[in-house]
Amino acid sequence: xxxxxxxxxxxxxxxxxxxxxxxxxxxxxxxxxxxxxxxxxxxxxxxxxxxxxxxxxxxxxxxxxxxxxxxxxxxxxxxxxxxxxxxxxxxxxxxxxxxxxxxxxxxxxxxxxxxxxxxxxxxxxxxxxxxxxxxxxxxxxxxxxxxxxxxxxxxxxxxxxxxxxxxxxxxxxxxxxxxxxxxxxxxxxxxxxxxxxxxxxxxxxxxxxxxxxxxxxxxxxxxxxxxxxxxxxxxxxxxxxxxxxxxxxxxxxxxxxxxxxxxxxxxxxxxxxxxxxxxxxxxxxxxxxxxxxxxxxxxxxxxxxxxxxxxxxxxxxxxxxxxxxxxxxxxxxxxxxxxxxxxxxxxxxxxxxxxxxxxxxxxxxxxxxxxxxxxxxxxxxxxxxxxxxxxxxxxxxxxxxxxxxxxxxxxx
Length: 412
Hints:
With 412 residues, the chain is mostly helical. The protein has 17 helices and 4 strands. Strands 1-2 form a two-stranded antiparallel ribbon. The chain has a two-stranded antiparallel sheet with strand order 3-4. A hairpin with a 2-residue loop joins strand 3 and strand 4. The radius of gyration is 24 Å and the shape is globular. The relative contact order is 0.12.
C-alpha cells in the first residue's frame, strides 16, 4: 500500500470515528444539521456516479430522490415498522423505486448525449414535478403525505440521535457499495463512457445498455437518500421534486470535485452546513453560495477535494519556510476580502430592502443598521470601507498566490 493510500485510509477511519462520536458532543439542532449533511452527501455521491464518472450531466436527479422519499413514506404507513420491512430497512423501498424509475427514465435519456441528455432529464423531472400536485393518491396533493417512525429491533427511533445513527449506517454502507462498484469491470467501463464512447462501441460494447445501467444505479442510491430524508422528517411533499434540489446537487458536487470519489460527498456536507449556519443570519446566503460556486469553477475547476488531491500528487503542498509567509499572507488577504465583500452585500441588501424604504420620510434617508452600527447611506465612508477592504485583500491575495504557485499564477 502506498503512502498516499495509507494516509487516506487513516483519514477516512478518523472521519468515521468522528461521525460515530458526534452525537455525544453536538446539540439537537446540530444533530439535525448533521443528518441533512449525511443525506446530501449520499445524494451527491449517487449523482457523481452518473455525472463525474460516466460524464452524463443530469439536471433532473431530484425526481429519483423525490420518488424514493414518497415510496418510503407509503411503506412507513403500510408496514408500520414491522413485518417484512421494519423501520431500519425502509430505505430499501426508496432505492427500489429509484432503480425502477431510473431504468425507465434512463432508457429514454441515454438515447442522446451531451446537452440533449441534460435537457431530457430536466424535462422528465419537470414533468413529474408538474403532475405531482394533481396525483393526490400518490403524492398527497399540495399538503403531501406524512407518516411516523415506528419502533423496531428494540429501538424507538423517536429521538434524532436514533435517526442520526440509522442515517449514518445507510450512508456508510451506500458509499462502500458505490466505491466497490467503481472497482468492478462495469465501473471501469463507466469511466469509458466519459472518456471515449466511440472506442467502447468499436470494442463491441452496447453503449445504450451500459448508460441505462449507470443511470439506474445512480437513481437507486438517489432513491435511498430520498428515503432517508422521508424517514428523518416523517413527511414528503412534492417540493422534493423541485428543480432547486437538482441544481443544489449539481453545485455541491462540482464544488467538492465531481471526478473524485469522496469529493461530491464532502462538497455536499460543507454546503449543507454552510446553508444551516448562514441561512439564519442573512437573506443573501444563496448569493454567497452562488459566488462560491463561481469562484471554485474559475480558480479550482477540479473542486476543493479534486484540487487538494492534485496538489498532493504534484507535491505542491510541501511548504518550506520560504512559502510559510506567503501562505499566512494568503489566508489573511482572503479573510479581508471576505469581510469587505460581506459588508458590501449586506449594506446593499438592507439599502434596497422594502423594510428600509418604508422608513424613508420625505427627503430624509435613515441610517442603515449593520453589525451594531448605523451607516449613513450616502456617505463615501459607508461604501468606501468595504470596497477598499475588497481591493486591498484581492491585491495581496493575487500577490500571495503567485508566490505560492508561480507556474499557475494563482489561477487555473
